[in-house]
Design brief:
Blueprint (H helix, E strand, L loop, with lengths): L1 H22 L8 E2 L4 E4 L2 E5 L11 E4 L2 E4 L3 E7 L4 E5 L5 E6 L2 E5 L3 E5 L2 E2 L5 E5 L8 E10 L2 E13 L7 E2 L4 H25 L1 E3 L1
Keywords: Membrane, Transmembrane, Transmembrane helix
Length: 204
Amino acid sequence: MWHLDARRLTGVLAVAGVLLVTGVGPARADGIHRGDPVSVAFPDIEVPVGGAAVDPLGPSLWSTGPTKLTGASVTYDLSGVAGVRLTPVDGGGECVRPSPARVVCSDPRTLSFEGETIEQYLPVEVRAARTARTGDTGTVTITFSADGLAPITGRSRVRVVEGRTDLAATGPVAGLIGGLGGLVLGAGVAGVLATRRRRTRFLA
């Protein structure tokens, strides 16, 4: 019973961290969709000129309780920035690229989870060409859908930076609130990663 309570606590901490890190400031007002049975967070990302973002871009999902989803997919539409492209990630589902600015990834398995956070679900790589201009920003419109679930759409901001950035997922987080969010998120993620193999199940 203690182990179950601990796993639930780490799930709550991870969600709290996502809310703090992505939910602060008016620019992130549309960064989180709270729903039932699934909520989705859409992180911002920084990409260095001539390179790729440190981490892939993908939505974070969490549930209010035991949930099983079939036919899950994530669609990415990039706009508003030159010299940046999206590329499917190996192992990130079955992906197609209808256009240079659009990627659609689907999951043929049943997605089953119970209250924990699933981060970077069906992600894509974000890469900037050497011709991209530092400081330029664009938007990736991300839509998560599944059978029997109304599509959930949010937007992630993409900002081109100079050189290599240490953190791919960013946002207008400042001072103490940002630090607190990072600490909570780190604690939650550590626990979730330790238990995800037992709590997150993909059924064929």
